[in-house]
C-alpha cells in the first residue's frame, strides 16, 4: 500500500516544519515521499530540496493513502483546507518534534503541528489542527479548542480553557486558573506578544500588555 505525505504551505511556517516532519518519518522507518503543497504554483518546483506542487496536482497522485500537515498560520485558512481535505478523503497528519514532550492522559486532535521543545502536560485535551511553536507549553488540566495557534514561547499554565481559533502571541503568559474556575480565552480572541493574561478574555477580543487589557481602537 503506497503512501505520500505533504506539508501544505511553503512559506516560513511550512519551511520550518518540513525538517521536523521529515525527521519524524525517518525515525519511524517510513521511506514515503514527502512534498510541499503550494497553491501559487502552476507547475512542479523545488523548495529547500523538496518537490513542491499545487493541491490539484497533489490530489491526482496515484497513492493509496495521502496525509497532509497544514502549515498555515491563519486558523481560518487552516479550517478551509481541513474541510477540503476531508471532502477529498485525505487524512490530516500530526507532526511533532523529537524533543516534544507529551505527558499522561493527553488527547490531541488530528493535524497538530508541535514544534521542537514543546511540552504538553498531563490531563490536557486539544482539538484539531493545533499549532504550538518553539518552546511553548500547555500545563495540566487545560482544554484547547480547534484551530488554536501558539506563537513561540507561549506559557499556558494549568486549568485554562482556550476556545476555537484563538491566537496567542509570542512570549505571552496566561495565568493559571483553578479547577472550579478555569481562566477562559474566548473564541477567536487574540493575545498580543508578551502579554500577561490574568483574567478571562472575551470572544473576539484583542488584549495586550502586562496585565493584558483590551486594545483600544484609534
UniProtKB/TrEMBL annotation:
SUPFAM superfamilies for the chain: Trimeric LpxA-like enzymes (SSF51161)
Highest rank taxon of the organism: Bacteria
For whether the record's keyword set contains Mitochondrion, the answer is no
Which segments constitute the PglD N-terminal domain? 6-85
MF terms from GO for this chain are: transferase activity
The record's section on Pfam families has: PglD_N
Q: Which UniProt keywords apply?
A: Transferase
Q: What PANTHER family does the annotation carry? A: ACETYLTRANSFERASE, UDP-N-ACETYLBACILLOSAMINE N-ACETYLTRANSFERASE
Sequence similarity: Belongs to the transferase hexapeptide repeat family.
The protein, known as: Acetyl transferase
Q: Taxonomic classification, please?
A: Bacteria, Pseudomonadati, Pseudomonadota, Gammaproteobacteria, Moraxellales
